[in-house]
Amino acid sequence: MKILITGGAGFIGSHLAEYLLDQNHEVIVVDNLSTGSIENIAHLTEYDNFEFYEGSILNYKLMLRLVTSCECIYHLAAAVGVKYVVEHPLDSLIVNVRGTEIVLDLANVFRKKVFLASSSEVYGKNGTRPFQENDDRILGSIAVSRWGYSCSKAFDEFLAAAYYKSSKLDVVIGRLFNVCGPKQKGIYGMVIPRFIQQALNNQPITVYGEGTQIRSFTYITDAITAIEKLMSDSQAKGEVFNIGSPESISIMELAEKIKELCQSDSEIITVPYEEVYEGDFEDMLYRLPDISKLKAVTGFNPEVSLEEMLKKITKEYTE
After folding, report:
1. What region, left, alpha or beta, does residue 92 occupy, with left being phi > 0 and alpha being psi -120 to 50 degrees?
2. Tens-digit pLDDT profile for residues 225-235
3. Which of these is catalytic: 74, 84, 149, 219?
4. CA angle 179–36–180, rounded 5-degree value
């Protein structure tokens, strides 16, 4: 099968591309390299069935050519990371909204199956735990740019659902919860690689806020397994699924665990949000997925524990 991955030079996209190539699929990657990296996909050029196009999903002519040449689409291209979203609010909204419009419109015209990567950010400040796919969304003021990202991803979901209802477009939506693993960078706000690098360098491990935020983390291989199961199951058409792990930890506990794992002398310090982000930044206290729907449809169950994933990621930095 010939598969198009938008944002395929990013962290998740590059791992997905390698997985699909190993399954003997032909893979086309398009990425503007704003947050993706050539380094992530350099080794993939060794595959005869791999193509890379440096370009934007906002380029309609390019996307027309790529969509017509593929059989299905994994739409991962989007603004990523809290820090990037806060610092680039306009770019984030345009890529997430207009880019997804282009991808879904072309997919509908040429009847291509689509996986739409959404985000746990759509739940906003909802204090329910764990989140279920039909839970209410609770957001802050429009003056807080973070919630614009949440709205843009929700719009993407609404648009995909509308194409399914109106045109029977074969689309499935996955809300990803903190996917992590090798090749992930901490510069866009990803906490695990940032903590590990700080710990290994015996630098202060900087916990934003008070560290009481509760999170779950999903290893990249588990995320890809879930995505593939959804794409191959007809019951998933037109539906939204949480993709994540129900195992939870506070950010302060995560810092302590990483410090111990790295045998680090680092001091763990808390940093007020306003010193890292804009003054009106808001965070959510809980962000945990209920994956019972995903399990019921696909039989998926995450295999990599938090302890194991931290060891795997740390090993990458120490070898």
Report:
1. alpha
2. 999 999 999 99
3. 149
4. 15
